[in-house]
Amino acid sequence: MTEPFDFTTSVKWFFKGIIALIFFALIGILVCNIWIVYSTEDRNFYSLDKLPSNDIGLVLGTSKAVQGGKANLFYKYRMEAAARLYKEGKVKFLILSGNHDSIFYNEPNDMKKSLMRLGVPENVLILDYAGFRTYDSIIRCKEVFSQRKFTIISQPTHNARALFLANHLGVDAVAFAAQDVQSGYKTYLREYLARPKAILDVYIFERAKYQESAGE
User: Fold this and answer.
1) Closest CA to 118 of 77, 154, 153
2) Is the separation of the CB atoms in 60 and 137 below 8 Å?
3) Superfamily for the 39-203 domain
4) How far apart are CA 74 and CA 7, in angstroms?
5) 31-55 pLDDT, tens digit each
6) What is the largest CA-CA distance in the chain?
7) What pTM was estimated for this model as a whole?
């Protein structure tokens, strides 16, 4: 004779399973973050004097303004770092890789205008309009722009993920850390969760969203 269904016991096991899944997911996220940070720290440079020179600097895009129209300090400091690297002779050309998914939003063109205002000549600025994600920017720099060695320019936490991707895509990359921004937990949480996604990009998802030509 079959035993009667015990609803209470089943519910308890269900919630135990959910708790176990959450626990192992959190452990996995923590391990991914530790792996990415420590495997890239020797190539993430904070000092301009110690930064190796490269022909190409890859500037990772972000919006120039945040909600409410205020200036985005991540963008401001990133542009200042890129201009500084060019003026100090650490890079000869800058690839500006960002999102251009509508006529109203154009990260590469915004970066171009900002860098020209900072004294960087137009003829050293190369625009990549399909840098929708960090992964896209890295693989397009390698495959579309035929660059196997370059300097990534972004904030330090972002650089760690970009360097991890570059390393596993066969790129000889270093990164220069633009001034960081104390912007609250949301930005850091987003980056914390993006790092496991970077590992999935490397080991599971093989291609970028877009790899067409670099034209607008």
Assistant:
1) 77
2) yes
3) HUPs (3.40.50.620)
4) 52
5) 888 989 998 999 999 999 999 999 9
6) 85
7) 0.84
Residues in the chain: 216
Q: Distance between CA 208 and CA 140 in Å, rounded? A: 8
130 CB contacts (<8 Å, ≥6 apart)? 100, 136, 140, 209, 210, 211, 212, 214
- What does the alpha-carbon distance between residue 204 and residue 216 come to, in Å, rounded to a whole number? 29
- Alpha carbon distance 108, 99 (integer Å): 7
For tokens 């301009």, name the residue: 48
Two tokens, residue 206: 């093989």
Q: Distance between CA 166 and CA 203 in Å, rounded?
A: 13
Q: Place 20 in a pLDDT band, splitting at 50, 70 and 90.
A: confident
Q: Residues 74, 40, 52, CA angle at the centre, nearest 5°? A: 80
CA distance 121 to 128: 17
DSSP 8-state code for residue 37: H
**CB proximity list for 109: less than 8 A, separation 6 or greater:** 100, 127
